[in-house]
């Protein structure tokens, strides 16, 4: 498993999409130890709120999804973790991380989440005011299942 986890010493530490792409490219091209004996099976992102563009993506996607009840702050007919995992398993989410993964011969096969947090859309990151009003998921611990695309 490859881990990307922002550990802010102060609450204002955030990492950009460009920094994540650079980290992934560097990690996948690493030749010195520690290296896994086989291909990576997962990428642990840590808390989504520490990756603000992904947190905002989740909140916006949930707000626009007919399966999400913005007033109640929960999905209709399923658990919140299953709903968020399903959103993060969609192709449109994978596109957020895909360039570095594709360059390394990987793709996202699915997502697993826990500890989903739900809050007012207006308070989600700097662009929260643009998200449809209501209560939306904006944070979770996220694991992405990876798959090789180059047959290795």
How does the overall form come out from the CA principal axes?
Answer: globular
Structural class: alpha+beta
Main beta sheet strand tally, sense and closure:
4 strands, mixed
Number of strands: 6
Report mean pLDDT, rounded to a whole number.
86
Low-confidence stretches: none
Major β-sheet strand ordering = 1-2-6-5
Helix count, DSSP H or I runs of 4 or more residues: 5
Helical residues, percent: 25-40%
List the keywords.
single chain; 152 residues; alpha+beta; two-stranded antiparallel ribbon; 5 helices; 6 strands; 30% helix; globular
Characterization of the model:
With 152 residues, this protein is of the alpha+beta class. It has one domain. The protein has five helices and six strands. The strands form two sheets. The chain has a four-stranded mixed β-sheet. Strands 3-4 form a two-stranded antiparallel sheet. Strand 1 (2-3), helix 1 (17-29) and strand 2 (42-47) form a beta-alpha-beta unit. The two termini are 16 Å apart.
